[in-house]
Structure formats: C-alpha cells, structure tokens
Amino acid sequence: MVSRRSTKGASKARRDHINHEIRNMRALLPIVQEDQERLSYLHSMAAICTYIRKSVLFQVGKVQNILTEF
C-alpha cells in the first residue's frame, strides 16, 4: 500500500509566503497607499519589476556619467 500524503498544507503555506513577500515589496513602491491596495498581485509584480528595472537603469547611467567625468 502506497501512502499518499497531502501537499495541500505545504502548497497553502508556500502561497501565503509568496503573497506576504509581494505585499512587502508592493509597500516599497513609491505610490500612494490607496493605489497599492488596488493592485492585484500580478499588477503588483509588474510594477515592482518595472521599478527595479528603472532603478538599475538609472544607477548604471549615473555610474557611466561619473566614469566619463574622469
């Protein structure tokens, strides 16, 4: 007899953890609280990724500007 263990609890815990992290990252976005709360998790992730890409792009631009000054 093969024992089949339910992974329902583990899956829920994993989803809860992911959702918690998304809420934490969404809170860091430079938008007002009401707009943050209206974002779905998918839209939150899209906004977070866009914010990170722009931050990295502007940091690279600043570093390149500093290097070209010397």
TrEMBL record:
It comes from the Eukaryota. It holds the Pfam family bHLH_NPAS4. GO terms for molecular function: DNA-binding transcription factor activity, RNA polymerase II-specific; protein dimerization activity; RNA polymerase II transcription regulatory region sequence-specific DNA binding. InterPro entries: bHLH_dom, bHLH_NPAS4, HLH_DNA-bd_sf. Residues 2-55 form the BHLH domain. Keywords: DNA-binding, Nucleus, Transcription, Transcription regulation. PANTHER family: HYPOXIA-INDUCIBLE FACTOR 1 ALPHA, NPAS4 PROTEIN. This is BHLH domain-containing protein.
